[in-house]
Design a protein that fits this description.
The protein is an alpha+beta fold. It is about 65% helix and about 5% strand. The radius of gyration is 27 Å and the shape is globular. The protein starts with 5 loop residues before the first helix and ends with a helix. It comes from Sphingomonas swuensis. This is Apea-like HEPN domain-containing protein.
Length: about 525
């Protein structure tokens, strides 16, 4: 890795290690040494290599065991909530990096922890839950239906076999019969044996292998249509009892397609976005935004996360334009994209909390807000920020806390936000910390995209990167259209992007100038939480 791209990588890893109780418990000296390296003015590649290798050697064999032990200990004693939250996050990340499919983990949580009432000791339930994730991969057999041209290609692939129904175990035969109504006459049974952590990841591996086999048609002069089913059946290779029927959903990567009714508010919001885009921007800017949005739409037709990630990053490059000759591509994109994503972060945090309280306690909360309106002015979300932050509203704030007495989750969220924005200094630390994490994440997305393009390597966390990139793109475009719609003349896309960058700098400048103050003033809240 080049020296110029090391700082964000090392900074992100140092931040992660500093918050990782398991890493600190196993190898505190090595962790602290790595953190010291991250703070250096010039980070040398060989220092990072030696420090990370030393850490890896220490953590490899014990990490998940220690991590699980810390989680169970905190649950048993009713311990620190932030440690339970962080440790759970590190455990999920470790499981996904080890090859477990995200959707499999979601199903496990729903089936074993959420959909049944836990009447026994919670510690025992979580302990049993964590024991099922073995490091040893299992052999699964995955069945798909394929048409005959694709079957001919698979016959020469050692990982696949074309089988007759009679060759399958009884439970698989039953599933094939259940497919009878939707099984076209030209479809035959293809089976692959896959080593994987869970049935979901086994199915994904087989699914991608089928898509790769289909891609061979690009080399054929006379191309045939190669088709396979979206549904599959997967079972343990040694199991004679049962398996799991799965369906691949790729309308949006990682999100299962469901039939839903779009609300009138959502439709009106979409109509407003389109209207603002058409009326407020110059023709060239409008075309650029529309082209980026059209490219983003490609992911709805892609069955592969790696294709989606590459396409999504292309949308960002279209939106932001080419870098100047004196700047690297990633530096240029980060400089413009981070403000687009984070400029409204603090406002969105307070808005989400305000809206949740409003929905949960509509009449009681509005009664408190009406008292506040007598004393000050502003939009509903700005008023809520003043209610939570200004010292003169302490009595009304206590009324809100009292209102949430029987809602521990909402009360915890409120307390956490109050702590993060208690003073201008804490608020500055919170918003800049979020911006750093977004920057690190965008660096990781860009590195993964480059790895996919240049080396063809697909890491296990690509699916989550696709979701995050899509969310970053949405935030950026919505903020651009929101600001551009207020322009008195045809807005220029590059100027709007620069203006949002200035707005983000102004937020930080206001907080920095007041960071020695022990509390917020009315003017500071108005300046920091104003709508774009």
């Amino acid at each position: 890795m080049k020296e110029v791209v090391l700082p964000p990588v090392v900074a992100e890893l140092a931040w992660s290690l500093e918050n990782d109780e398991a890493a600190l418990a196993i190898s505190r000296p090595q962790v602290m040494h790595f953190i010291e390296i991250s703070k250096g003015q010039k980070i040398k590649p060989h220092d990072v290599l030696y420090a990370s290798t030393s850490l890896l050697n220490k953590l490899t064999n014990k990490y998940r065991e220690v991590l699980t032990g810390i989680l169970l200990d905190e649950i048993r004693v009713g311990g620190r909530k932030h440690v339970i939250l962080n440790t759970t996050g590190f455990l999920v990340s470790n499981l996904i990096s080890s090859g477990f499919d995200r959707n499999f983990l979601i199903d496990c949580v729903e089936d074993q922890l959420l959909t049944k009432e836990i009447t026994e000791n919670a510690w025992d339930v979580v302990k049993q839950f964590t024991r099922q994730f073995s490091l040893t991969k299992k052999k699964f057999k995955v069945i798909y239906l394929v048409n005959r041209p694709l079957a001919d290609i698979l016959k020469v692939d050692s990982d696949w076999s074309i089988v007759e129904e009679e060759q399958l175990p009884e439970h698989a035969k039953k599933q094939i019969k259940d497919w009878g109504e939707v099984r076209p006459a030209d479809m035959v049974i293809a089976q692959s044996e896959v080593a994987a952590a869970d049935p979901f990841s086994a199915t994904v591996q087989a699914f991608l292998a089928l898509d790769q086999a289909k891609a061979i048609t690009v080399l054929q002069v006379e191309q045939e249509e190669n088709r396979h089913s979206d549904f599959s059946y997967v079972y343990l290779a040694k199991s004679a009892r049962s398996g799991t029927a799965l369906r691949m959903y790729h309308d949006v990567p990682g999100v299962k397609k469901v039939d839903s009714i779009v609300s009138g508010h959502s439709r009106r919001s979409s109509q407003k976005i389109i209207s603002n885009l058409q009326k407020s921007f110059s023709e060239s800017s409008r075309e650029r935004i529309a082209r980026a949005m059209a490219t983003a739409n490609v992911i709805s037709e892609s069955r592969q996360d790696e294709v989606s990630l590459i396409s999504l990053w292309s949308t960002i490059e279209i939106l932001l334009g080419d870098p100047p000759d004196f700047d690297s591509r990633i530096s240029h994109f980060l400089k413009l994209l981070v403000p687009l994503v984070v400029v409204r972060y603090h406002r969105r945090i307070f808005a989400a909390l305000h809206d949740q309280i409003t929905v949960t306690y509509p009449k009681s909360f509005q009664a408190i807000v009406r008292k506040l309106k007598i004393e000050t002015t502003g939009t509903s979300h700005t008023l809520f920020a003043k209610l939570m932050l200004l010292p003169e509203h302490e009595a009304l704030r206590m009324e809100v806390i009292g209102l949430l007495g029987e809602n521990p989750l909402l009360r915890h969220r409120l307390g956490r936000v109050q702590g993060q924005y208690r003073t201008p200094r804490e608020a500055l630390k919170t918003v800049q910390g979020h911006a750093s994490r977004v920057e690190w994440h965008l660096n990781r997305i860009y590195r993964t995209r480059n790895t996919l393009v240049h080396a063809g390597e697909n890491p296990p966390y690509t699916e989550s990167l696709v979701q995050n990139t899509l969310e970053y793109f949405r935030s950026a475009v919505l903020n651009i259209i929101r600001v551009g719609s207020k322009s008195p003349c045809d807005a220029d896309l590059d100027q709007v992007i620069a203006e949002i960058g200035f707005d983000w700098a102004i937020v930080q400048r206001h907080l920095t100038a007041n960071q020695k103050e022990s509390e917020f003033s009315n003017e500071l809240v108005t300046a920091v939480f104003k709508e774009l």
